[in-house]
Amino acid sequence: MLRYLPFLLVLAVWIYAFIDCLNTPEKEVRNLPKLVWVAIIVLFGSVLFGPLAWLVGGRPRGRPVIAGEGAGGGAGRPGRRGRWVAPDDNPDFLRSLEEDRQEEQRREERRRREEKDERGRERDEEGPEGRQGPDGDRR
Question: How many CB atoms lie within 10 A of CB 55?
């Protein structure tokens, strides 16, 4: 099994570089046109020259890690490329945690009020002297 490991690693790097190159917009590719990079990756993939050349020389720098965020930036930082931000540094995430905590407090307070109201209704049904039996005797 170990004799296949180098081949599998080369194949994995080749596939990654090929797909990464295909998914990169033409205007973000560095140094050579995108079609030339694809040819280099395909032709020199078996010796790792093509994929490594792409990763070092052709891949865009500062590539956004979070897909779908445009040039407007995300994670509460307008104007930046969509950089990944740790949850404890992300103001949107922290705000959502605070909103969840407040909602949980409101639910708990509502539950306590309902329990208190229910106990009050039970006391009102008992009357001022407490519970009485059908013939008026106290229990």
Answer: 16
Rounded Cα distance between 119 and 52, Å, is 73
φ, ψ of residue 130 to 5 degrees: the values are: 100, -170
The DSSP code for 77 is: -
Which residue is associated with the tokens 């404890």? 88
3-class SS of residue 68: coil
Estimate the crossing angle of helix 34-43 against helix 5-23, to 10 degrees.
Answer: 170
Q: Do residues 14 and 49 touch, judged by C-beta distance below 8 A?
A: no
Ramachandran sector of residue 50 (left: φ over 0; alpha: ψ -120 to 50; beta: rest)? alpha
* Sequential pLDDT tens for the chain (139 residues): 788 888 888 889 889 988 988 888 888 888 888 889 888 888 887 788 888 888 888 887 765 544 444 444 444 444 455 667 787 788 888 899 999 999 999 999 999 998 888 887 777 666 655 555 566 655 5
Contact call for residues 94 and 109 (beta carbons, < 8 A): no
Tokens of 93: 């995430």
The neighbour count for residue 40, using CB atoms within 10 Å, is: 20
